[in-house]
Inverse folding.
């Protein structure tokens, strides 16, 4: 359980966020810290992501990692990932939500990350984040890369959702229930989406967090916003024509999720170093906070007379 985080300065019409979450995806760790495909230094790239997470918010309600935690499901890869992320989560006083992806192996994930028996049972869970419910689904299919949700998991989800939560529910799952403009991903899409939609409709689900695509994407499913976080390991170079899109060691990103009473925003955070201006600061915000709304408009909205 974590305390709700409110925005310190509220200058607009919306209520402050009740919860702030970090949404990370697809670290694809390998045993021994090996490079993915011999190219991508996934551990260094993840370390850069963690540095960004540490500075972006002091106390998120959760860090959600939406699958493909490892590339080959090796126990050592899970141990290395856990050793990388858990100290940062402890420092920020937050919980980690591990979600299984198609590159994961349930038995190793359960044993090495969750200290559970190494079975093929789906890796699911429910978190009460001070009234915001987070449900992790397991869309992985042992032995395959496409996604699916079987009757048992859908029935379980229906049961959990039968009772609404005070701040509503977020679902976290690896395969997004969205189309991709890259045909390769449609081969690996989530099956039984109609059945999932039926469970979600009329429930208190306010958003779906997903991964798998290695690029940032947004859509709706059963009337619910879906946000796909890009990968921390490598990303798909979607600036190319769809048939020519391949991986690149650039544009890694995660998302900052602000849960407001009336809406949820997903901010894509690029993991990058770049010369950055110094105009805005805590002192600037304090000067704005000392003004009335009308004075703030005068100070920051009015254009100089021409
Ligand atoms: Fe992935
Ligand atoms: Fe995946």
């Amino acid at each position: 359980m974590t305390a709700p985080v409110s925005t310190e300065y509220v200058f607009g019409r919306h209520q402050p966020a009740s919860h702030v979450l970090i949404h990370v995806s697809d670290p694809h760790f390998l045993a021994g810290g090996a490079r993915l495909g011999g190219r991508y230094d996934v551990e260094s790239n993840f370390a850069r992501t963690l540095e960004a997470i540490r500075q972006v918010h002091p106390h998120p309600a959760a860090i959600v990692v939406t699958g493909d935690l490892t590339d080959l499901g090796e126990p050592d890869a899970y141990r290395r990932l856990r050793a990388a992320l858990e100290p940062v989560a402890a420092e920020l006083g937050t919980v980690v939500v591990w979600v299984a992806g198609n590159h994961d192996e349930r038995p190793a994930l359960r044993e090495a990350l969750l200290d559970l028996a190494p079975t093929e049972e789906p890796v699911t869970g429910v978190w009460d984040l001070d009234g915001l419910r987070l449900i992790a689904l397991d869309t992985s299919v042992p032995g395959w890369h496409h996604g699916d949700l079987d009757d048992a998991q859908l029935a379980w989800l229906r049961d959990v959702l039968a009772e609404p939560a005070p701040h509503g529910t977020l679902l976290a799952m690896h395969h997004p229930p969205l189309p991709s403009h890259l045909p390769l991903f449609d081969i690996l899409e989530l099956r039984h989406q109609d059945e999932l939609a039926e469970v979600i409709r009329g429930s208190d689900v306010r958003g779906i967090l997903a991964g798998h695509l290695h690029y940032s994407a947004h859509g709706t499913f059963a009337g619910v916003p879906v946000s796909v976080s890009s990968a921390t390991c490598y990303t798909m170079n979607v600036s190319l024509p769809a048939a020519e899109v391949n991986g690149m060691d650039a544009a890694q990103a995660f998302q900052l999720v602000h849960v407001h009473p009336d809406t949820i925003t997903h901010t894509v955070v690029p993991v990058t170093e770049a010369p950055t201006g110094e105009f805005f600061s805590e002192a600037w915000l304090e000067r704005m906070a000392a003004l009335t709304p009308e004075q703030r408009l005068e100070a920051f909205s009015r254009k100089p007379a021409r």
